[in-house]
Amino acid sequence: MKYLPLTDNERKEMLESLGVSDIKELFSDIPQSKSYYSLDELPPALPEERLIDVFKKYAVKNKYQEYLAFLGGGAYNHFVPEVVNALSGKGELLTPYTPYQPEVSQGSLQAMFEYQTMMTMLTGLDVSNSSLYDGGTAAAEGVLLAVRKSKKNKILVAGSLHPEYIEIINTYIQNLGIEAQIVGFDKETGKLDLDELTEKLSGDVAGCIFQSPNFLGVVEETKEISEIIHSEKGYSIQVIAEAMSLAMLTPPGECGVDIAVGEAQSFGLPLGFGGPYLGFMVVKKDFIRQMPGRLVGQTVDQKGRRGYVLTLSTREQHIKREKATSNICTNQAWCAMRAGIYLATMGKKGLRDISKANHLGAAYFVKEVEKFDHVAVKYKKNFYNEVVLQITNMPVDDFLGKLEGKGILCGIPLHWFYKEFENCILVNFTELHKKEDIDKLVKVIGELK
Predict the structure, then answer these.
(1) How many CB atoms lie within 10 A of CB 40?
(2) Mind listing the pLDDT tens digit for each residue in 403-443?
(3) Can you spell out the DSSP letters for 343-404?
(4) CA angle 382, 252, 156 (to 5 degrees)
(5) pLDDT digits (tens, 9 = 90+) for 89-113
(6) How many Cβ atoms from other residues are within 10 Å of residue 404's Cβ?
(7) pLDDT band at residue 299 using 50, 70 and 90 as cut-offs
(8) CA atoms within 13 A on the CB side of 36
(9) What residues contact residue 311 under an 8 Å CB cut-off, 6+ apart?
(10) What is the pLDDT of residues 164-216, one digit of tens each?
(11) Distance set, CA 144 to CA 4, 161, 226, 235 (Å)
(12) Residue 304 CB-density burial (10 A; 0-12 exposed, 13-18 middle, 19+ buried)
């Protein structure tokens, strides 16, 4: 489909119908000093073939492929099979909007239904919606769900939850009369402080939201955390920022988790400067009526043939109106469909093999860097595919700068988020990191004594 700009005559007709003489009048409420900028420096228009040549010259300046990246922290570089791109790029799947009319939307609805089914299998919980926006907003929706279901306005938030997710949660609840309290984590183990959790829990707490593997890469004692939360009639909310871990670790549902939310970007979505990503929510069946977003269900028509419909859709524009459980106006249906294609392509064994490779890459790195005195892995146990690396012989920014000069993006400096981790970086490993890649990282680190 081609998207062509309006002609000058068409713009003129539109302005006349609006009763304004100039497009700038449409934005008169914006201060003039901030609304328009001089375009005098722009070069004149070029013929198409010359314009393509200009962009080719810009493209050769892009040197990102020269870098070996070990970045993570909520965005993970995994292999995406070409079948995912090929199928999700088909016009009938790429362009559909909300499937209000099931009789003409069976393909989209079935894709959503299959995605939901696979997410329930991975998490061990009962019901998945057909996606949310991203991991951060999914975490906030998990908090709101626990508050609605419990009718309590206090929530506990793990300090080891992704710091940006915590900011999003605070933004969501700041005007809703919901009180959030941070539960710290043990700096020696990287795990949630269970004594502090027990101390802060009370009968007026809706629940606790925590991440596992947490932002420091440490796998939490999810079952024990859930039992503590349930002892005070609260709800256990687990965030999974690295969805690939679901194929290796004990599912949230088997650990007593009530609400699992997180980011499914690892399932068939490439890194893209912040998005589009894919938030997910999977819950116990008792929460189904309070879930945000959409639920696709399977049914039969008058002739007994299998079909798919929107079973539940809770946005304001639908029948719930002011009683809607969320102000989410759409979802990430296309991204969810890509995730479904990816999961179906990989299958159980393939997904498990990839997940295992992620962990083994991190484990190999931990073993190899033990021979150095100027760096140390802070948490050598209970990690999945991210580890905290302490630097003892120079400032972290200098360390990262020297690695970047060697073509390696080693990790995320944790002083961005925690003052007490000013000499630490978060290093990530996926199946795309070959043994020789990790060996190169270790070798260069060893040269920085």
Answers:
(1) 5
(2) 999 999 999 999 999 999 999 999 999 999 999 999 999 99
(3) HHHHHHHHHHHHHHHHHHHHHHHHHHHTT-SSEEES--SSBSSEEEEEE-SS-HHHHHHHHH
(4) 85
(5) 988 888 777 787 888 889 889 999 9
(6) 12
(7) very high
(8) 11
(9) 295, 296, 297
(10) 999 999 999 999 999 999 999 999 999 999 999 999 999 999 999 999 999 99
(11) 42, 17, 18, 12
(12) exposed
How do 154-158 and 179-183 pair as beta strands?
parallel
pTM above the 0.90 mark?
no
Question: Which domains does the chain possess?
Answer: 65-79+347-446 (3.90.1150.10), 82-343 (3.40.640.10)
The span from the CA of 116 to the CA of 376, in Å, is: 41
Q: Considering just the CA atoms, what is the radius of gyration of the chain in Å?
A: 25
> Got the DSSP string for 42-92?
SPPP--HHHHHHHHHHHHTT--GGG-EE---SS-------HHHHHHHTSHH
Look at the block and give the residue holding tokens 């972290």.
396
158 touches 315 (CB < 8 A): no
Among residues 238, 241, 146, 225, the alpha carbon closest in space to that of 193 is found at 225
